[in-house]
């Protein structure tokens, strides 16, 4: 304590007799008392608050972390607890089937500060039935007459995936893909992706979930198009084989209307699955909703990215262009910093404002020496010098004043018997 006092140059403050008898300094475990004596006391009290706040923050975050599971999603990159939100740039099929565009997009994700670039890997005959592949796809977003032709145009080969993985490794960004069927998961396992992404359309595919979970890699599981009952079953099924997984709230509509986002499901998941980091996969336009998800505690977020929103393809419109992705990353990091601590107390950075505008107990009338104080003698104003803070006003009642106090003067601690 002395060291602290010396550090701020007010070593005398703790020896004032009134500080312990009339307005005791609170112990580290009690709520912080506001300074009531003068600016010097304010500095010391703030320094104590700062020291305690560090300890409390540590204790509190240890407490939280016992309940919120954290795990290593990618080599050297933990998620959950107080680790930064993991940001997935979902390239998906926005590469238009062109590997050079895909590489540009991986580089863009890296340059914008995303943690990971993600694709969608299908083994089309395993993901789709023959008739589904043959169905006509008459959309302005179609790359072929049938859905099969369309998907074949957008699908990279195993060799192309190896090339993309090497490229991502070389430039230093994690790369993974959703395995859109069991065979694709086999290939991604062989490709040695850091984690498996499970797309919403496989969240109710229990044989797939079980096999994927058994492989032992961490999993990021999206939950669009599902019911709470199904998600409870997903939790149980995956947990039996693999503790390293996250659940992402998701609504599978492109672009997603804000009315259908239901960020509140994040809270629901946090309550129902307190040992799982919860995240958000968004298909809305813009970045605000995703930033809000992080403020609600999303530990992983995924957003589609594009080089140009006007390009052909189902997902471009709801995707983020590079400037938006960079802004999203900045906003998320800023909000994470701002989340801070739930310990409410006056902070050192508030001292300047407190010195200038913090209020004190002021004499409403002239108070002659020897008067027994009562509430009607007090006003609350910004005083000069700073006096007893108003929250201690009641404690003055019944005490005797040692000196004559003029109307509008600050009432100071050493004026009280
Ligand atoms: C649910 C799901 O898989 N959704 C994916 C991820 O969000 C999407 O990227 C789809 O692959 C895409 O919207 C399909 O578009 P098309 O049908 O034009 O290929
Ligand atoms: C469809 C996917 O994700 P989500 O369900 O999160 O949109 C995906 O990862 O391919």
- The helix count comes to 16
Q: Compute the separation of the termini in Å.
A: 27 Å
Radius of gyration: 30 Å
Category by helix and strand content: alpha/beta
Hetero ligands: N-acetylmannosamine-6-phosphate, phosphoenolpyruvate
Sequence of secondary-structure elements: HHHEEEHEHHHHEHEHEHEHEHEHHEEH
Mean pLDDT: 88
Describe the global form. elongated
| Low-pLDDT runs | 1-52, 63-68
Total number of β-strand segments?
A: 12
How are strands sequenced across the largest beta sheet? 5-4-3-10-9-8-7-6
Percent range of helical residues:
25-40%
Largest sheet descriptor: 8 strands, parallel
How much of the sequence lies in strands comes to 5-15%
Features:
417 residues, alpha/beta, two-stranded antiparallel ribbon, 40% helix, elongated, disordered N terminus, binds N-acetylmannosamine-6-phosphate, binds phosphoenolpyruvate
Explain what you see.
- The protein is α/β, with parallel strands linked by helices and 417 residues long.
- Helix content is 40%, strand content 14%.
- The chain has 16 helices and 12 strands.
- An 8-stranded parallel β-sheet has the order 5-4-3-10-9-8-7-6. The chain has a two-stranded antiparallel ribbon with strand order 1-2.
- Helix 4 (99-112) packs parallel to helix 8 (158-171), helix 4 (99-112) runs parallel beside helix 14 and helix 10 (206-214) runs parallel beside helix 11.
- It binds N-acetylmannosamine-6-phosphate and phosphoenolpyruvate (PEP).
- N-acetylmannosamine-6-phosphate (LRY) binds next to loops.
